């Protein structure tokens, strides 16, 4: 009898396990099996620099476009970044706006200082060369050099947002790599991680069988994994 896979109860240990053992494709597969078939963000949100990988808890932020420079334009943006906790991922929903640029080097620096693990922006970012140099993982739809003042403002944070076509709630597990971004709802998180770990082990067996001479059909018939 196979011993059930144990998922750590500690948040830090759980996120570390996801970071080191899992990837978005396998998580997407098991989330599908659990009945949540729309948890992968739009493919237009890509790593801002090669090799960026993120796993952590969503800390959500919502912006709206504006068309005038207002007093104290960064107040809520600063509040949102300063409220990040260790293990958080800033998930910024902009509409998605093509007018503004939400994220840059100084926000990345502040987020890292708070213990955040990355930022996912359904919109534009800037200062990418500096962000890459500091190794802070950021995903975005593109780059634009403009400032947000007079173009957009944060209207709320810590509330559900639609980012990349997925409803993201505060505290959801968010995983991002070269294949894309997956949001794991808390209600299925333990089962999703357990099933994903089991699938990774099964994929290793399928790979070994194929390398050992089995056809793909034979390996699939034996393990039921593709």
List its salient traits.
226 residues; alpha/beta; Glucose Oxidase, domain 1; 8-stranded mixed β-sheet; two-stranded parallel ribbon; 7 helices; 12 strands
Number of strands: 12
Indicate the proportion of strand residues: 15-25%
Looking at CATH, the homologous superfamily of the largest domain is Ribonuclease E inhibitor RraA/RraA-like
pLDDT averaged over residues: 94
SS summary, helix count: 7
- What percentage of residues falls in helices of 4 or more residues? 25-40%
Query: Which CATH top level class of the largest domain fits?
Result: Alpha Beta
Series of secondary-structure elements, N-terminal to C-terminal: HHEEHEHEEHEEEEEEEHH
Report on the structure:
The protein is of the alpha/beta class and 226 residues long. It folds into two domains: 40-184, Ribonuclease E inhibitor RraA/RraA-like (Glucose Oxidase, domain 1, 3-Layer(bba) Sandwich); 191-223, no CATH class. It has helices at 11-21, 24-33, 75-82, 105-113, 128-134, 189-211, 216-223; strands at residues 46-47, 54-65, 88-93, 118-122, 124-125, 138-140, 142-143, 152-157, 161-163, 166-168, 173-177, 180-184. The strands form three sheets. Strands 1, 2, 3, 4, 6, 8, 11 and 12 form an eight-stranded mixed beta sheet that branches. Strands 5-7 form a two-stranded parallel ribbon. A two-stranded antiparallel sheet has the order 9-10. α4 links the parallel β3 (88-93) and β4 (118-122). α2 (24-33) packs across α6 (189-211) and α6 packs antiparallel against α7.
């Amino acid at each position: 009898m196979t011993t059930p896979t144990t998922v750590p109860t500690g948040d830090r240990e759980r996120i570390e396990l996801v970071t080191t053992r899992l990837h978005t494709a396998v998580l997407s597969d098991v989330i599908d099996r659990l009945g949540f078939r729309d948890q992968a963000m739009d493919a237009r949100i890509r790593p801002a620099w090669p090799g960026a990988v993120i796993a952590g808890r969503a800390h959500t932020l919502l912006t709206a476009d504006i068309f005038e420079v207002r007093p104290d334009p960064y107040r809520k943006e600063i509040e949102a970044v300063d409220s990040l906790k260790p293990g958080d991922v800033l998930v910024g929903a902009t509409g998605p706006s093509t007018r503004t640029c939400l994220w840059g080097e100084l926000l990345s620096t502040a987020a890292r200082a708070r213990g955040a693990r990355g930022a996912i922006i359904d919109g534009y970012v800037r200062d990418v060369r500096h962000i890459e140099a500091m190794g802070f993982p950021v995903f975005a739809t593109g780059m634009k050099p403009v400032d947000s003042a007079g173009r957009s403002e944060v209207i709320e944070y810590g509330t559900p947002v639609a980012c990349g076509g997925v409803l993201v709630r505060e505290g959801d597990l968010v995983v991002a790599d070269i294949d894309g971004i997956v949001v794991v709802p808390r209600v299925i998180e333990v089962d999703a991680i357990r099933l994903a770990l089991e699938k990774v082990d099964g994929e290793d067996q399928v790979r070994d069988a194929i390398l050992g001479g089995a056809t793909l059909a034979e390996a699939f018939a034996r393990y039921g994994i593709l």
